Amino acid sequence: MKNHASPLQSTKKFFQSGRYVDYSFTIPALLFIAVFMLYPIWYNIIMSFKDVSVSNLKDTSEQAFVGLANFKAIFADKYFWSAFQNTFIFVILSLVFQFSIGFLFALYFNKNFKGAKWMRAILLIAWMNPAIITGAIFKWLLAGDIGIFNYFLMQIGLITEPINFLASTQTALYSVIVGNIWIGIPFNMIILLSGIQGIGNDLYESAVIDGANSVKKFFYITVPCLKPTILVLLLLGFIYTFKVFDIIYAMTTGGPANSSQILPYYAYEQSFKLFKFGQGAAASCVSFVLIALLAAVYIYFSNKEEMDA
Amino acid sequence: MLKKTLAIALAAALALGMSACGGNNDKDTSGDNKGESKTLNLWHYWDSEGQQVLLADMVKAYKEDTNGPEIKISYIPYSEYIQKILVTAAGGQLPELFIYDGNSTATFVEADILADITDRIEASGIMKDTLPGVVDEHKVGGKLYGFPVYANCVALFYRTDLIDTPPTTWDELYETAKSVSKDGMYGFAMAGGGGEDAVFQFLPFMWSAGEDLDNVAAPGTVEALDLISGMIKEGIMSADTVNNSQEDTRVLFETGRAAMMLNGPWNVVPLQENAPDMEWDLAMIPKKADGEFASILGGESFGIGKDTDIDAIWDFVEYLVEPERYKEFLKGLGQLPADSVLGSDPYYTDDPVNKVFIEQLKSARPRAYGGKYNEMSKALQTALSSAMSGDQSAQDALNDAAATITPLYEEFKASEGASE
């Protein structure tokens, strides 16, 4: 007798043991993923190599393959590159501040003082609010003439003339980032807080006996114990931030002069404003590749983590 | 064994259920055969209840009066409207009749969505008195692809308690705006935000100077943009203009923070409701000293889906545009007729607000620049906001825009010449 079964035998065993029943339960989920995720991604990739515009959208047989022409066209567009650059500024600044402010809040609410529970719940409103509403509120807060933020700065004498945060190409992107940071803080807080609460108290107690101060406790216990949480959080944060659209739409519509556009907004505008569907798809593909790369890096590091552990 | 079979059956049922959801749209095709039960479709994006009721009543009256076919009205929010129509077109089930932004005619023709109805319109005479600009808006390559529901345009609103005589030229606009501008009060407001609003309100200035999109860096256009960005720089206009839509502009005016503004008739009712005591009047958009008055044509149109049952729906169209009935329909909508005969009705000419818009409408021009107008508009939006935010001079910004717009304009002209 051979040591291991031939493919035919293992297939037979698979059916005899009834394991196929277990696997059949995944069919609905697999179908869902295939229809609503894989197919659109596939279709988008195909479209990015085709000439798809308003004149041939109806008749798919007229959509000729054009190789890399769509990519060449967007790479030749200076607003693609400014959107590309803005995407990284947007994502990095958003993540850094959302994460660090969220972390501070998490440490604060971990103290479990009186009223901490309902204050935490109120903070979550920022995360639950539709971004289009948050965007409208920030548009008013930051307005040059009626904005309360300018009023405040002028009252305390920091500035003499109002700053037109959203109306200047120098500041519009950063204003949108501020709005997006505000949205993301509660999410970071809640994830980190649940991570912190999962750390056993005995660790801190023995550290105190060994004479650790609170700074040391933070860097030698809290942060290392939170490492898996932080990794997941940063990855999710990256993906959420990378595809932000509504807050930009509400605050600046990508302007002035395209200065606050990021890649998803650029792709939207190419497809649905200018009806250059092929080029819009190409821009989406660039986003897709960037996110896929990051996901690969993430998987590499989390595997390494498991090996080390 | 029974358990196993049941489990698989359930999983399969779930999966099938999902695919059935996805395929729901295909069911309508079975009703394509011509029969008595044939249902026609009418799509719109009107979100005011009053307008929806008018449309529903019209369809109901048609069915009762003529015993005609059933017409199913579907509301689709404006934000998804064009996407929905484009996607439906790809699936081959366009509605027989739909309302659309008249300015999109050329784009929709390029997308092969609108049926050529030149012969029917000419035979029925429904556009014989339509304003020439409105006719042009619906014409692509000499053929007609739609007809107007109503028309609108932009005019100058001014506060009569602050301004005695409204400005008629650009110089007067500047002087008047400057004289009334003070702390907490801008002299003048207009839309400048990203999107079509900014271009919609800027083109009248360009046309008044006798310029066109063939060269947006021409002196008259540059002068117009210099005038506006100059007023922003001096604080006569809000620095946030670059972020303001036409509705934001109305809010500036109705809250008493602007003495003059550019806006259209659709903002009259909200203005009257929100600021009932404000004293204001209307005037033509100021023109360049040696130029002509100009405004821009807006409004909505009816289009007929390509390869649908045109014969059946045309019967409803002729019922709808029957002059007496149509007049009442327009009054109910609170919109201006795109028609010189209907427009001469005392209902409009004796009304202090409507009469100015009717007059301004005569100088309103369509954005009939072919299917790639959106690309031209986008380039111009970028230039306008670049100059208004002080990032670039008007000349530099418009030079950049012209580099994009001029070739598109020439392409459009060539295609017009080829098809005529």
What does this protein look like?
The complex is a heterodimer of chains A (309) and B (420). In chain A, 72% of the residues lie in helices and 0% in strands. Chain A is mainly α and 309 residues long. Chain A has one domain: MetI-like (MetI-like fold), CATH 1.10.3720. Chain B has 420 residues and is an alpha/beta fold. Chain B has 18 helices and twelve strands. Mean pLDDT of chain B is 89; it is low at 20-36. The interface between A and B is large, with 41 and 46 residues. Chain B: InterPro entries: SBP. Chain B: It comes from Massiliimalia timonensis.
Secondary-structure blueprint:
The complex is a heterodimer of chains A (309) and B (420).
Chain A: H1 7-16, H2 19-24, H3 27-48, H4 69-75, H5 78-109, H6 116-123, H7 125-128, H8 131-141, H9 148-155, H10 172-197, H11 201-209, H12 214-242, H13 246-251, H14 263-273, H15 277-308
Chain B: H1 2-22, E1 39-44, H2 49-66, E2 70-75, H3 78-91, E3 97-101, H4 105-110, H5 118-124, H6 132-137, E4 139-140, E5 143-144, E6 147-152, E7 155-159, H7 170-180, H8 196-208, H9 219-233, H10 246-254, E8 260-263, H11 268-274, E9 280-283, E10 295-296, E11 298-304, H12 310-320, H13 323-333, H14 340-343, H15 346-349, H16 352-362, E12 364-365, H17 373-388, H18 394-419
Parallel strand pairs in B: 1-2, 1-3, 10-12
Antiparallel strand pairs in B: 3-11, 4-5, 6-11, 7-8, 7-9
Helix pairs in contact in B: 8-9, 17-18
Summarize the structure.
By secondary structure, chain A is mainly alpha-helical. Chain A has helices spanning 7-16, 19-24, 27-48, 69-75, 78-109, 116-123, 125-128, 131-141, 148-155, 172-197, 201-209, 214-242, 246-251, 263-273, 277-308. The two termini of chain A are 39 Å apart.
Q: For the record, what CATH class of chain A applies?
A: Mainly Alpha
Share of helical residues of chain A: over 70%
Q: What is the tally of beta strands of chain B?
A: 12
Low-confidence blocks of residues of chain B? 20-36
Question: Within the CATH hierarchy, at the fold level, what is the topology of chain A?
Answer: MetI-like fold
Task: Give the overall average pLDDT of chain B.
Answer: 89
Give the DSSP E fraction of chain A (strand runs of 2 or more residues): under 5%
- Structural class estimated from helices and strands of chain A: mainly alpha
